[in-house]
């Protein structure tokens, strides 16, 4: 689950997350990392043999937590315990780790007793899983980045040449690690052709997991470099696989929301961000992503002319991260341009860092509109001069144009009487018309879709119906036998019907 | 290396372009031949490794072409030059590619493109382009070439049309003025649509000032174009009333929605 943490989380947040996970671990029965890896490998075997990707996903869910506990000796021990026989795979895997100190070696011999020798070679999925673990481990220190890059390339080649569908979930994770490798060594832009090629292969092979992961990788890379045009084209040319996991969907919706917001399509952006929030893991598990989505969603809400709820800013995970945005919300709510301006300059660097600055700058007109709306609600007639003074506008002439635009855009109902220099504010529209039924239909269809999707999402144990079938079959057999007996034994006539009815 | 005649043509173009007054015919013919040469050298859309000087030259040619097409009011040609220059501006500045020295004309051209988007009312594209500028967001206002379109957009959006009108003379580069006319056209239409919604009637004189017309005949022809009723004796313009139109109840749509609803409910129960 920690998979969804946004990559640019700062150190502080990561530490926080780490603490939380530690706390969780203490309550759970302690499991050594080696044992955990072994259990995971067993699960992978099971997943491959039963063709049930559920087990694979269970393994990959622990990846985030496991990642933090890895070190050279853990990995080495795990590899030598899983690969008991001397095989080329084992050798290549061990090559990526620094040579073991001799003390460790003797222990290895102890812990790998002879009876396991007969075990067959583990499935290739396990090998790739180990590669993934090693890759994550190499990424923890700066010195091994080049090594990580080599391993990443080799692993990609390996997964692609094996071309096994049971490998897909792991391959998707490998791609994430590859992106991380490129990013940490500062060459994110160079990874794009690689991702594009892999995306094409994945979509040809109907490899949904990898495809979902790669689309997100690409979008992220484009957005990182502000290439919104390209990102938009990628979105329009690809279809995001509907079977992708929630974390991938959450990311995808977040990126879509970003693109839409930049293109001024705030309604669509809002829908996407809502989806991202709903699909994201709980706030405490992935605080980075949760905060990033909410930051953007607050700004988009404001741009749509809505004021986010107050309770949002009291959320323990969000409170600190959203403090700057809270100030902005206050300024917009008040419709005070001067307050807006001072807040903007105060938090400029923060917004710049969150890449929301340009979006927030667009709010300026919303501040004015909110101001006008407030005035139009509280006065039935107000002179343009007063509007000008109250909203800190530069001239009466401007005020006239601005009010005119507000009326045309449907922000307020009213008329300007030019000769007298005032604005007549009309009454509110009655909120009843065909649009009411539209809204109703939209809500109902949302509920229905939710229902249908939850029905679809239900899981049934495989082959569970076989038992029932067998039972039904047996009953039928018995009935047949009975009928036969009844036919044969004509002398039991008077008891026959009773027996028959009993069945 | 580029052939010598290419270099000499390039030098000629530079001279012809910077000469006052510049020679449009000579520029046009030189540009045409240079573009052919560029595509022969594989520099029009640079692929692979080209030498630094060649690429700088190619970029200069394209930049001059962009300015020239604005001077000769050929907007589609400006668009073409702009998209060709994108490669030079965006891709050739980080390590794996040749790093070109930044061009002094880069921001004027980007600014011009932004204004061009504004005049066409392509606000979404405007913001996308703005977002992809390689500048920190809060330093956008520090660059005069970018600041101008950014301010224009802000004023247009909030409705301070008089500020736009006043700013038309403050263009940071000569070429920006070429867009003023079409920009004025855009804002006049904006103002007109605002007036239709916000006023019942307006005195002719005031309407003229609001729309920045200096003569009455211009105003009258504009009014005719938009279908306003002009009462010359009273000196007023009356705007056609909208908004009172009858609201139809979309029966078929409602029925269809209800049927779909019933079917879905049936499925659940």
Automatic annotation (TrEMBL), chain A:
<feature type="region of interest" description="Disordered">
    <location>
        <begin position="471"/>
        <end position="503"/>
    </location>
</feature>
<dbReference type="InterPro" id="IPR036390">
    <property type="entry name" value="WH_DNA-bd_sf"/>
</dbReference>
<dbReference type="InterPro" id="IPR013586">
    <property type="entry name" value="PSMD3_C"/>
</dbReference>
<feature type="domain" description="PCI">
    <location>
        <begin position="250"/>
        <end position="430"/>
    </location>
</feature>
<feature type="region of interest" description="Disordered">
    <location>
        <begin position="1"/>
        <end position="32"/>
    </location>
</feature>
<dbReference type="InterPro" id="IPR050756">
    <property type="entry name" value="CSN3"/>
</dbReference>
<feature type="compositionally biased region" description="Basic and acidic residues">
    <location>
        <begin position="1"/>
        <end position="25"/>
    </location>
</feature>
<keyword id="KW-0647">Proteasome</keyword>
<dbReference type="Pfam" id="PF08375">
    <property type="entry name" value="Rpn3_C"/>
</dbReference>
<feature type="compositionally biased region" description="Acidic residues">
    <location>
        <begin position="488"/>
        <end position="503"/>
    </location>
</feature>
<dbReference type="InterPro" id="IPR011990">
    <property type="entry name" value="TPR-like_helical_dom_sf"/>
</dbReference>
<protein>
    <submittedName>
        <fullName>Diphenol oxidase-A2</fullName>
    </submittedName>
</protein>
<dbReference type="Pfam" id="PF01399">
    <property type="entry name" value="PCI"/>
</dbReference>
<comment type="similarity">
    <text>Belongs to the proteasome subunit S3 family.</text>
</comment>
<feature type="compositionally biased region" description="Basic and acidic residues">
    <location>
        <begin position="471"/>
        <end position="487"/>
    </location>
</feature>
<dbReference type="InterPro" id="IPR000717">
    <property type="entry name" value="PCI_dom"/>
</dbReference>
<dbReference type="Pfam" id="PF25573">
    <property type="entry name" value="TPR_PSMD3_N"/>
</dbReference>
<dbReference type="InterPro" id="IPR057985">
    <property type="entry name" value="TPR_PSMD3_N"/>
</dbReference>
TrEMBL record, chain B:
<protein>
    <submittedName>
        <fullName>Proteasome 26S subunit</fullName>
    </submittedName>
</protein>
<feature type="domain" description="PCI">
    <location>
        <begin position="76"/>
        <end position="256"/>
    </location>
</feature>
<dbReference type="InterPro" id="IPR033464">
    <property type="entry name" value="CSN8_PSD8_EIF3K"/>
</dbReference>
<dbReference type="InterPro" id="IPR000717">
    <property type="entry name" value="PCI_dom"/>
</dbReference>
<dbReference type="InterPro" id="IPR006746">
    <property type="entry name" value="26S_Psome_Rpn12"/>
</dbReference>
<comment type="similarity">
    <text>Belongs to the proteasome subunit S14 family.</text>
</comment>
<keyword id="KW-0647">Proteasome</keyword>
<dbReference type="Pfam" id="PF10075">
    <property type="entry name" value="CSN8_PSD8_EIF3K"/>
</dbReference>
<dbReference type="GO" id="GO:0000502">
    <property type="term" value="C:proteasome complex"/>
</dbReference>
């Amino acid at each position: 689950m920690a998979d969804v943490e946004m990559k640019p989380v700062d150190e502080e947040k990561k530490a926080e997350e780490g603490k939380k996970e530690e706390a969780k671990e203490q309550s759970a029965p302690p499991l050594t990392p080696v044992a955990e890896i072994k259990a995971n490998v067993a699960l992978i075997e099971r997943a491959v043999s039963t063709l049930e990707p559920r087990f694979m996903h269970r393994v990959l869910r622990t990846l985030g937590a496991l990642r933090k506990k890895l070190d050279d000796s853990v990995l080495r021990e795990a590899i030598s315990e899983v690969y008991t026989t001397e095989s080329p795979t084992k050798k290549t895997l061990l090559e990526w780790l620094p040579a073991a100190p001799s003390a460790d070696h003797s222990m290895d011999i102890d812990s790998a007793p002879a009876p396991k020798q007969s075990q067959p070679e583990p499935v290739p999925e396990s090998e790739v899983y180990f590669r993934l673990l090693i890759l994550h481990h190499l990424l923890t220190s700066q010195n091994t980045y080049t090594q990580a890059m080599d391993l990443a390339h080799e692993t990609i080649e390996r997964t692609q040449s094996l071309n096994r569908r049971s490998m897909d979930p792991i391959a998707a994770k490998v791609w994430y690690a590859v992106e991380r490798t490129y990013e940490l060594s500062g060459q994110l832009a160079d990874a794009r052709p690689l991702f594009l090629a892999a995306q094409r292969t994945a979509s040809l092979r109907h490899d949904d997991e990898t495809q979902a992961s790669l689309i997100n990788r690409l979008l992220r890379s484009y957005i990182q470099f502000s290439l919104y045009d390209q990102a938009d084209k990628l979105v329009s040319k690809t279809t995001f696989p509907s079977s992708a996991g929630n974390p991938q969907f959450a990311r995808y919706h977040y990126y879509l929301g970003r693109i839409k917001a930049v293109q001024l399509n705030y309604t669509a952006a809002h829908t996407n961000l809502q989806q991202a929030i709903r699909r994201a893991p709980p706030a405490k598990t992935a605080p980075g992503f949760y905060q990033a989505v909410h930051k953007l969603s607050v700004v988009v809400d404001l741009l749509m002319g809505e004021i986010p709820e107050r309770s949002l800013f009291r959320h323990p995970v969000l409170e600190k991260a959203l403090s700057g945005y809270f100030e902005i919300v206050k300024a917009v709510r008040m419709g005070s341009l001067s307050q807006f301006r001072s807040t903007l300059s105060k938090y400029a660097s923060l917004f710049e860092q969150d890449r929301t600055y340009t979006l927030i700058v667009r709010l300026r007109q919303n501040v004015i509109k909110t101001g006008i709306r407030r005035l139009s609600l509280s006065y039935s007639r107000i002179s343009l001069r007063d509007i000008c003074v109250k909203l800190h506008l530069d001239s009466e002439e401007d005020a006239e144009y601005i009010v005119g635009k507000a009326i045309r855009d449907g922000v307020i109902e009213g008329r300007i009487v030019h000769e007298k220099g005032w604005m007549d504010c009309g009454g509110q529209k009655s909120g009843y018309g065909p649009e009411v039924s539209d809204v109703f239909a939209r809500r109902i269809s949302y509920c229905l879709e939710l229902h249908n999707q939850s029905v679809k999402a239900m899981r049934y144990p495989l082959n569970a119906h076989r038992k029932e079938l067998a039972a039904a079959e047996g009953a039928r057999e018995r009935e047949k036998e009975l009928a036969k007996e009844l036919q044969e034994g004509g002398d039991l006539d008077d008891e026959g019907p009773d027996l028959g009815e009993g069945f | 290396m580029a052939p010598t005649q290419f270099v000499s043509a390039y030098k000629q173009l530079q001279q012809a372009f910077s000469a006052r007054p510049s020679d449009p015919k000579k520029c046009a013919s030189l540009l045409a031949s240079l573009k052919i040469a560029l595509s022969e050298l594989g520099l029009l859309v640079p692929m692979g490794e080209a030498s630094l000087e060649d690429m700088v030259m190619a970029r200069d040619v394209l930049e001059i072409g962009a300015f020239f097409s604005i001077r000769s009011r050929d907007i589609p040609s400006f668009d073409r030059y702009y998209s060709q220059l994108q490669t030079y501006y965006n891709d050739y500045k980080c390590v794996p590619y040749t790093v070109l020295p930044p061009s002094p004309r880069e921001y004027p051209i980007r600014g011009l493109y932004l204004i061009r988007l504004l005049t066409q009312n392509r606000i979404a594209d405007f913001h996308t382009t703005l977002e992809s500028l390689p500048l920190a967001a809060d330093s956008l206002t520090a660059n005069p070439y970018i600041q101008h379109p950014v301010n224009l957009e802000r004023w247009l959006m909030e409705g301070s049309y008089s500020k736009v009108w006043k700013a038309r003379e403050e263009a940071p580069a000569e070429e920006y003025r070429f867009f003023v006319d079409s920009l004025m056209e855009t804002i006049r239409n904006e103002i007109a649509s605002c007036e239709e919604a916000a006023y019942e009637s307006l005195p002719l004189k005031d309407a003229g000032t609001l729309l920045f017309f200096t003569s009455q005949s211009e105003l009258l022809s504009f009014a005719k174009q938009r279908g306003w009723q002009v009462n010359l004796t009273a000196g007023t313009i009356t705007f056609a009333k909208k908004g009172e139109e009858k609201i139809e109840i979309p029966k078929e749509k409602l029925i269809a929605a209800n049927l779909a609803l019933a079917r879905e409910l049936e499925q659940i129960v």
